[in-house]
Amino acid sequence: MSTRIHVAALAGAVLSLFQLSGGAYAAQCGKTAAGYEAWKQEFSAEARAKGVGQAGIAALMSTHYATATINADRGLKSFRLSLDQFLAKRGGNTIIARGRQLKKSQGALFATIERRYGVPPGPLLAIWGMESGFGAVKGNQNMLSSVATLAYDCRRPEFFTDQLYAALKLVDSGRFTAQTRGSMHGEVGQTQFMPKTVLQYGVGNLDTAAGALDSTANYLKAHGWSAGQGYQPGEPNFGAIQAWNAASVYQQAIAHIGQRIDAQ
Fold first, then answer.
1. Can you say whether residue 134 is alpha, beta or left, with left for phi > 0 and alpha for psi between -120 and 50 degrees?
2. Which residue in 43, 34, 74, 218 sits closest to 144, CA to CA?
3. pTM given for the model
C-alpha cells in the first residue's frame, strides 16, 4: 500500500468513526423522492442514537415524501411584494375589521393575556389573522411528512432537521401523533407554530384560540417584548415581531395591522 493510499484510508476510517459517534450528520439530503426511503432509514438510526423513542421512530417511518410541500416551498414568492401589495394579497383590511370585532368580543381573554405577558391585542390579532384567518385555515397536510420531507430536501436541511427532532420528541411525549395535521411547512395550530416552537413556547392547546394566543404572547415575551413599549419598526418591541417571521414585509404587515387594531 502506498503512503498516499494509507493516509487516505486512515482519514476515511477516522471520518467513519466520527460519523458513527454522532459528531457529524450522516443522512444524505436529496432533491427528489427517489432517495427518501433510504434517508428515513439513515435518519432513524441517528434519531435513536439521540434518544428518540419507539413512538417517534414509528411515526417517522410512516411518513411519505410530501410533494405538495416541496412544490409550495419552491413557489414562495409573496414575501418579495411591497407592503401594500402584500396587505392586499393577504386581505389586510379584512383582518383589521375582524380583529377589531374580536378585540371587543374576546376582551376578557386579551386582558388576561396582556396582564400575564404585557402583549396588547393588536399584534396577537394580526398574527392570528395572518397565520390562519383566525383559526379558519390551519392546513390539512400530514405535519410529520412535511417536516421530514424538508429535513431530507437539500435546500434547508439544517433548519428542518432541528424541527424534525422537535416533532419526534413531541410524538414521544404524546403531544403530536403520526396523524397530526398542519400547513405546508409543518406549522400547526391557530397561530401556526413550528414543532421546535411548540416544544419551547407552547403553553396550551394550539388548536384553541386561548391556547394559541397564550403561546404566541409567551413567544413574543421570550423574545424581548416589553409591556407598554411600541412595536412599530424602530421601536423596542419590533425585534420580537422580527423574531416571529424572518420576512421583512411580513414583519411590517404585523406591525401595521396590529397598530390599526389597537388604535380602535
1. left
2. 43
3. 0.86
